[in-house]
Amino acid sequence: VAGENFDQSPLRRTFKSKVLAHYPQNIEWNPFDQDAVNMLCMPKGLSFRTQADNRDPQLHSFLITREDGSRTYGFVLTFYEEVTSKQICTAMQTLYQMHNAEQYSSVCASSSCSMDSLASSIDEGDATSLAKLQRYNSYDIGRDTLYVSKCICLITPLPFMQACKKFLIQLYKAVTSQQPPPLPLESYIHNILYEVPLPPPGRSLKFYGVYEPIICQRPGPNELPLSDYPLREVFELLGLENLVQVFTCVLLEMQILLYSQ
């Protein structure tokens, strides 16, 4: 388990994640920082879900700044896949049995009744809350399907967010589709890593993803730096008043800290 969250139910806890594979294995000018990438891909750790939970894919980005000032951008698509290991499913059920036993003990301990009548030691309100707890806060290996979070990530020298987002979504669709893509998945990964060059400054580049073409544009020397993040999302997340306040702080050269879940 990652962090001190044992008071949470097992499906609400986070677990330690790890990098399963990365390609290419090493690049001289851009060494792979496994610990940083692992932490930034899953900042909250590995998580589990069941068929009753929302499992929509989520996309986020991160930035690694090295001591020499060089920057590396990461774009991550997090999705959930079914757990096929019976050992893991059994372990999850065991965690729930332990958790519910602790909750039951807690309810009994909070009761003011005597110990010689355990059945009467839980009043009606406690019994109702305990029944709800066990109904909605449980995992049954014979009834529920267990899912675990997984990430695919692209690491780039420039923040081509839209292009990376489209490629990752197409790759995810190819992995989860009943109909296999025209070419093996390795072909598309090899193509974007070794055959798609960075567009020259001031030019656009069109390349083919898995299903649809993708366009990325690079500003010229006399243009503003690349900012491929949609401004509309900033207004939606921060709101107009907060954004004006942040912009004012930027103009006044104040230090700004944004804190988010």
UniProtKB/TrEMBL annotation:
The entry's keywords: Guanine-nucleotide releasing factor
InterPro entries linked to this entry: cDENN_dom, DEN5A/B, DENN_C, Tripartite_DENN, uDENN_dom
PROSITE patterns, per database record: DENN
Protein name per UniProt: DEN5B protein
GO MF term set: guanyl-nucleotide exchange factor activity; small GTPase binding
Species for this entry: Prunella himalayana
Every UDENN domain range: 1-261
